Amino acid sequence: MKNTTNRPLSPHLQVYRPQLTSMTSIMHRITGFGLALGAVAATWWLGSVMLGAGAYETFYTFFASKTGQLLLFGWLWALVYHLLNGVRHLFWDMAIGVNIKSAYATGWLIVFGSMAISAALWIFRLQGYYG
Amino acid sequence: MSGNNDTSIRTPLGRARGSGSARDGVGHWWWQRVSAVALLPLCIYFIWNAPFFLPPVHDYPNLIVTLANPIMSLALIFGILAGFYHAAVGVQVIIEDYVHGENLKIVMLLLNKIAFAALGITALYAVIYISFALFGQTPLM
Predict the structure, then answer these.
(1) Potential cystine with B55: which of A11, A63, B4, B106 (Cβ 3.0-4.6 Å)?
(2) d(CA A103, CA A100)
(3) Which domains does chain A have, with CATH numbers?
(4) Residue B125: which of A50, A38, A68, A32 has the closest Cα?
(5) How confident is the model at residue B1 (pLDDT cuts 50, 70, 90)?
């Protein structure tokens, strides 16, 4: 059905100058969608473990490959980012920190924090801290 | 509020039906937050433990014992319930925002619900199956 009233529209991304606040917001959506795809991979993982060592081997071969490892790191970063920005959103929902200054401070914190945390965990793993 | 003036944001169909909202508009919004709060500790637990058993670690016998551990199994069950619900609501909002054709939108919203319900039930069944297959053989971590 055609919408004939003058409803307010969402801001068009391409006509706005990129700002930290809008970028962290769109990244929340992109990482969220990526993690929803991760739910498919997680189901494949649990399903293959259930079906036995042979079925798990197919899953393992893909995720031990370079592409698979890159995907796993991508999901790790996306999850850390989405968690940190999610907490930021929960505070905003409680009307805490709803001002430009805090939005920018916490915005940079989650951007660099998510990169630092996911990189640190990945390096710990590569260094064999996990045994 | 009058529904007949030009400044109303209600659609013609909404005005014709005249029945107002379904009064559950904030339901998804609220449960998205509830599931988010539940997922916070669960995700930290999963992020911390994942490197012990995800590829490139290759140890199937240890993997099934780890997954069948009651604490891990329960964390996975809660995580699947909260996580797949959270994902389905999140993807629904994305579809509602970007898919403008009414028919396509309804089809995609349906497929979204069916997909996450099917995935979630499969994942839950897998956790329970693995857990019961190793019943009594899983010392607590």
Answers:
(1) A63
(2) 5
(3) 21-126 (1.20.1300.10)
(4) A50
(5) very low
In this predicted model, what pLDDT tens digit does every residue of A45-57 receive, in sequence order?
999 999 999 999 9
B130–A46 CB contact, under 8 Å: yes
Number of helices and strands (H, E) in chain B? 5, 0
CB B122 within 8 A of CB B84: no
Q: What is the CATH number of domain B29-133?
A: 1.20.1300.10
Amino acid code (one letter) for A63: F
Token reading at B62: 């240890």
Q: Which of the 8 DSSP states describes residue A14?
A: G
**Chain A residue numbers touching B81 (CB-CB < 8 A):** none
Structure tokens at A77: 């970063």
Q: What is the pLDDT of residues B88-119, one digit of tens each?
A: 999 999 999 999 899 999 999 999 999 999 99
- Which residues in chain A are closer than 8 Å to B64, comparing Cβ atoms? 49
Q: How far apart are CA A68 and CA B53, in angstroms?
A: 15
CA distance A36 to A121: 22
